[in-house]
Fold Cytochrome P450 716B2.
Amino acid sequence: MTALIGDDHKRVRGALVSFLKPEMLKQYVGNMDEEVRNHVEMHWHGNQKVMVMPLMKTLTFNIMSSLIFGIEKGETRNNLIELLQHMMNGLMSLPINLPFTRLNRGLKASAQLRAFIKNLISERKAALEQRVADTRKDLIACLLGIGKTEPSIRMSNEEIVDNVIGVMIAGYDTSSVLITFLVRLLGMDRSVYDKIVQVFLIKLEIIEQEEIAKTKTSELLTWDDLSKMKYTWRVAMETLRMNPPLLGSFRKVLKDFEYEGYTIPEGWQVIWAANMTHMDERIFSDPSTFHPARFEKQASIPPYCFVAFGGGARICPGNEFARIETLVTIHYLVTRFKWKLCCLDNSFSRNHFPVFSDGMLIEIEPKDSVRIH
């Protein structure tokens, strides 16, 4: 979708938004809750140390597998994540297509992944025609269903494949990076951890994680529960401002334009960089200081200055999906565990996306009040 312009972009984006809009996502909060709880039980409980970054990538992939593909855990998921990892490695590799190179492995993985998605499209089509599947089941079923009811935004099979892969790439790395940075922050700054966990008041509204947990026995989190996690999401937004998963992206100039006395010609490639505005003290005062209160009134932030999710007509259609995924995950981590960083440095490099050399290793301790739902 990033390469499309004009009416084609509006048509494809409209189809994606129909699945990722809040009205649809409200139905999937419970599915995410179950995926997160299963993940915590399998990979966190009973362990003294965990590597956060690879675990978060596994979690976000499992959530995508469930909601995008409708695939339950098992061998198929394991094969898919391996293909996705090879494809991602190939995206940022040297353009040398020889059998032993990352690019070659990435191209082969991409071909296998596309073939797999095409088979899923055929299966969903047949199920929808036989009325044994619901268009709300997953993203592929939704896109196929929209094509029947709204011909103006109908997508070809190739377009569906392209956009499913695009959603996979965006959801696999960006959300997992955000959650990893949040875990790092909460391990380094006890005051932020305590505020997220403990009950406190904002305009007489009691919110945040332990208070929400008290209202639950075996019930899943709901959309209303997420709406009470205001401080947690402000912390996430400030984390995205200071450490955006994606530093920027390329755009192609469609026609000549003037900028600060310079002519930018048609056909040039330009790059927008998040840090140019995120760390501009004219927009965010004292930008190197972590200050979640900046996002109490988002309307006060000038347009196109906070661009962790892009902006304008091309703002990420999955930003609400990422919010739900992040809040559900942080809820179960902070209400069930305390942790500390095993390496005080915990610096990271960037291979397009941030990478921690030790996987962001932490030492975890279950809380006495943990309830196994």
